[in-house]
Amino acid sequence: MCLVAVLLDHGLGEPRRWHPVVGFGNLAARVEQRLNSRPGSVARGALGLGLLTVPFLVLVWLVTLWLPEPFSWLLEVILLWLTISLRGLAEHGRAVAMPLGQGNLEAAREAVGRIVSRNPKTLSEAGIATAATESMLENGADAVFASLSWFVIAGLPGLLLHRMVNTLDAMWGYRNERFLHFGRFAARLDDVMNWIPARLTAATYALVGKTSLAWQCWRRQGGQWESPNAGPVMASGAGALGVSLGGPAPYSEGMRERPVLGGGPEPTADTIEAAIALVYRGVALWVAVLFAIALLDLT
Predict the structure, then answer these.
(1) DSSP 41
(2) Among candidates 260, 268, 253, which has minimal Cα distance to 235?
(3) What number of other Cβ atoms are within 10 A of residue 54's Cβ?
(4) Residue 224 phi, psi (nearest 5)
(5) Cβ atoms < 10 Å from Cβ of 5
(6) CA 205, CA 282: separation in Å to the nearest integer?
(7) Neighbours of 70 (CB within 10 A)
(8) Transmembrane region positions (predicted)?
(9) Cis before 197? omega within 30
(10) CA-CA distance, 158 to 50, in Å (whole number)?
(11) Distance (Å, rounded) from C-alpha 114 to C-alpha 98?
């Protein structure tokens, strides 16, 4: 099933119109406008999350009970395809790597500004490559490996709950006046749901990259990052690629000092491609392991 979903994603990519994640995001924006009064409230944020997730989970559960086996299997494949976004990840990364490799920094800055929250206007060539590489590694964990993890752990309900919570964290998880309290529940739940998948992702990056360096960086540097889940992923990924990530980065509020992760030279356009390849090798490993387990269950 995972193999079929990955092949669909590779062949078709994401729907250009009527993507369910985009539709869910639009609905979440309207709920936030109604519930997020000033000052924000953790309870209202939790209520908003419940209103957005529970009806969908109940509906999917009822549909899967009602559908006969071939159609329920097809529904699972389609929803898994719509949530993993592996090809979309690669397309966004290559949209940065191509102009960067050609020396077109303005086009590269514009492209990287679409996938990261930092201010791209002042980014150097290495800064652009760093931002895009970090995005590939972190979104590989969030949008690919975590979705596969929760599908294996809890089927469609687990997959959909993770994807919805992750989307709400991306929309509401800011530490500013508007979302500091309202988005706290979504952010903490996302941390909890990503704890195991993040460490599985870090282990995967180590296995399919520069293994020894990745393990060392994970062990020594993973806990230095602000996010408890992104730290292991980014440290292991940087080590697996043999480059240095992190360091100072410009954001709208000013320069943010971040720990240096990994070991080696600064990233380049080639590093972005290497990060994409790392994620693909990790997915191939997961699909192979899951396929082997399924064959053993049949025997």
Answers:
(1) -
(2) 260
(3) 11
(4) -85, -20
(5) 23
(6) 7
(7) 8
(8) 46-67, 143-165, 274-296
(9) no
(10) 15
(11) 15
Alpha helices in 225-268 (DSSP H): 230-241
Given the structure tokens 């195991």, which residue do they identify? 196
The per-residue pLDDT for range 74-117, each reduced to its tens digit, is 989 999 998 888 999 999 999 999 999 999 999 999 999 999 98
Q: Check residue 119 and give left, alpha or beta (phi > 0: left; psi -120 to 50: alpha).
A: beta
pLDDT value of position 213 = 97
- Residue matched to tokens 């092949």: 7
Joined tokens for residue 28: 């979440």
- 294: CB partners within 8 A, 6+ apart: none
Residue 263 DSSP symbol: S
> In DSSP terms, which residues pair with 256 in a beta bridge?
249
pLDDT digit string, tens, across residues 33-75 = 999 987 779 999 999 999 999 999 999 888 888 888 888 889 8
Amino acid at 275: A
